[in-house]
Every structure is written in C-alpha cells, then in structure tokens.
Amino acid sequence: MKTIIKNVHKSFGDTQVLHDISLEIESDEFVVLIGPSGCGKTTLLKIVAGFIPPTDGTVEMDNHVVATSSKIVPPNKRNLSMVFQNFALWPHYDVRKQLLFPLNHHRYISKEIRGRKEERIDEVLEMVGLSEYKHRYPHELSGGQKQRVALARALAAQPGLMLMDEPLSSLDAHLKQEIRNEIKKISQNVKSSFLYVTHDQSEALSLADKIVVMNKGRIEQVGTPEEIYNFPENPFVARFVGKHNLLNGMWHDDVFVVDDVVWRKDNVSEAFKQKGMIPLRPDELKIVGRGSVGSRSGDGGTVGTTGGVGSVDGSVGGVGSGLASGAGRGVPGAAGGASVGGGGSDAAGISGTGGAGSGVGDGSVDGFVNGLPGIINSVYFQGNQYELNVDTKYGELKLFEPIGKWQVGDKVQVGQR
After folding, report:
1. What range(s) does the ABC transporter domain occupy (predicted)?
2. Residues facing 286 on adjacent strands
3. Quick one: 163 and 43 in the same domain?
4. 83 has which bridge partners?
C-alpha cells in the first residue's frame, strides 16, 4: 500500500512542530524517521496513524485521502497497525487474545485470514519465536517477549502499513540487536510497508530502505542509508548520522584547501562549500602503519617529522599506540592515535593519556600518546581543538566538536587514504 504525505504542517497553539512535510512511502518499503528528541517525528507518525489531524496538508493511503485539516479517518478505519514504545498490551488478555483482537476488529483483514484465525495466530507467533507462550499473560513475560507480542499483534491482520514508534528504546543492548534483526527479517517476508521512528542511527542504517532525517520539524534529507551516510547534504545530517568530522577551510570546485594542504573530494553538497567545511567520515581517517623515524624520544613515545612525513609511535604499559603518517606536499596523511605533520611550516599536536614525547622537525610537534591502539582524545587544527572520529579497527569511535583554542602546535593535517 502506498502512503503519500503532502505539505503537512502541525501546530499546537502558537507552536509549530511540523513545517511543510512531504514524503512518499512505497508499497513494501521500509522507511525510517530519524532525528533528535523533539524534532517532530512522533507527531508525524500520529498524524499518519489518525490520532491527531494535520493543521494543514493531506495524507493519502492507497489513493484515498485519510487526513486533512477538516477531515480525519479514524485509526480503526485505516489499513494500518501500530507498535508502541511501551508495548501497550492488555494486562487481562493472554498472548492468544492479544492477537485475536485485531483479527476480530481490523477493517481491512482479508477473508482468507478471517476464516482461519487460530492458524494465523500460530503463524505469527512462530514468526516472532513465541509459539510456546500462547497462553501466557503480560506479567509472565520479559520485556523482549512483550515487544515480540506487540509486534505479532500488529502483524496478525497483515496491514498495508506498519507504524513503529521507537519500539526498541526500552530494551537492553543485546535484546535491541536481537529484535532489530527479527524486524528486518520479518519486513522482508511480509507484504506491508513500514514507517519506523527512532533516534538511534544504527537502527536506521541497518533497517531502512529509505531514511528521512528530521530536525526542528523539518526534513533535512531523504535518501538510502548509503546516500545519507556517504553524502550528507548539510552539517546537521553529517553530525547526526555517521559522526562526520567537520573541518574548516576553503573550497575551489572539488578541491578543499587549508593553507598548503589540498584535499580532493567529490560529491560534496553545496551547503558545505558555502560554509567552507569538509565532512570527513571516520573511515576516511585511518591508521596506516607504524612509525620508525623520530627526532626525540619521550616517556613511552617517539614523535617526529621527516621530509613531509609526520608520525608518532609509542607504547604505554606494553600496549602499542596507534600511528598515522602522510607523505608528500599536498597529500596529507590520515590521523588516528598520532599527530601528522606535512613538512614546511606545518605543525601538529595531539593530546591523550599515557606516555609523552616531543620533537622538532620542519614544524613544531607536541604529542601525548594514548595507551589504547588507535584511539585519540583530541587534535588541534587551525587553532580549534577537535576530537576526531577515526576508523581504528580496534575500539569505539568518538564524537567530535571544536571545543576551544590552542596556541602551540595548532595545525594538524588530515587527509585521504
């Protein structure tokens, strides 16, 4: 079933929470609404469900208008089901009766399913792995089992559209992963469209055919997971999805320049070029080897620059630090667990925990080597302090923002592999 949202606005009193939202959900498509708390994604879901009317605009389902500012088709007369964040199970019904309710009351249920309700209950319970829990009550189920029952209840009537409002937010990390995988598998085997709300980027990237990024009641970008992650259209999307690093400089066509550092990057949105920014994904910054040159040694680290190559190699408590290096003018190296100098007047600095070392080559280098492989705390670039997301292949990545000024060693070159 195709769902079309056209120019939807929503206000509560003087507060406008949705601004001109237009979106199409194709048949059998899995669409994820993602954005920070308060961005309007749940409000949009409620309008699609029929719980609240739009202030302006329309919602169409299967070529029928189901919502305008003056007309609203109630939820029970729409070809949809919903999975709520808090499960919303009836405490006095066992699992069988939870699933029987939509089979008795859903308006769009097929004659084929209506004629074999018990068999349909068994099919759906097997689909979610709860065949043995048919006669259990909600108080006899774990959180993960309750969410599976809620999912099974929504699936039972085989709706044209499944609405899911942050269904995994109350589950622990292990259960989130497990049920997320089940939802993905189920979505590929049923004839329903999905509209799924979350603030979790990993859920969106793993589940969606199409991602809709929202912020402050507006749609920032619509695209496939690959498009959203690889080609963000503005700084908000870059920061919110994929934890891009945003560095400042100057653009000349597809070439990004900071002093004598040159970086060629295709398919960058004009929004970044107008702001003089380059978005760098964590996997564009990599540890590329281990350093063997150094002008001085410090406590647990060796730092130096030689002929356009900057490197740091050190260890703390027997654990080797990460290293990054780059060679040649205009082709900066990757940053990760190390500082990078590119020659000339270029200087670099990192700060972290563990051993320390310093050196003087063509440029000034100050560094503190982190004891964990490839994980750095911060770098200094053009006078701003950044923490850089780096794909280290070891531990967790970190989130970055410029957080202050620095006077010594205030330039770091980072670049393509």
Report:
1. 3-241
2. 391
3. yes
4. 164
C-alpha neighbours within 13 Å on the C-beta side of residue 227: 12
Q: Are residues 127 and 256 in the same domain?
A: no
| Listed residue (265, 201, 199) closest to 229, CA to CA | 201
Residue 316: per-residue pLDDT: 22
β-pairing verdict for 210-215 and 30-34? parallel
Give CA–CA dist 56/70, Å, rounded: 9
Q: Provide the greatest CA pair distance for the chain.
A: 82
Average pLDDT, the chain: 72
Average of pLDDT values for 93-117?
91
Question: Each residue of 318-352: b (16+ CB within 10 Å) or e?
Answer: eebbbbbbbbeebbbbbbbbbbbbbbeebbbbbbb
Place of tokens 């982190």: 370
How many C-beta neighbours within 10 Å does residue 300 have? 18
What's the average model confidence in pLDDT over 116-130? 94
Cα–Cα nearest to 280, from 136, 389, 405: 389
Q: DSSP string covering 65-90, please?
A: EEE-SS-B--GGGSSEEEE-TT----
The pair phi, psi for residue 116, each rounded to 5°, is -145, 60
User: What is the pLDDT, as a whole number, of residue 149?
Assistant: 96
Judgement on whether residues 67 and 210 belong to the same structural domain of the protein: yes
CA 97, CA 135: separation in Å to the nearest integer? 9
Q: State how far the Cα of 55 lies from the Cα of 182, in Å rounded to an integer.
A: 36
Q: Which domain holds residue 213?
A: 3-226
Angstrom distance (rounded) from CA 336 to CA 321? 10
**Token pair for residue 185?**
């598998």
Query: Residue 267 corresponds to which tokens in the numbers above?
Result: 């398919």
**Do 248 and 198 share a domain, yes or no?**
no
> Is residue 353 situated within a structural domain?
no
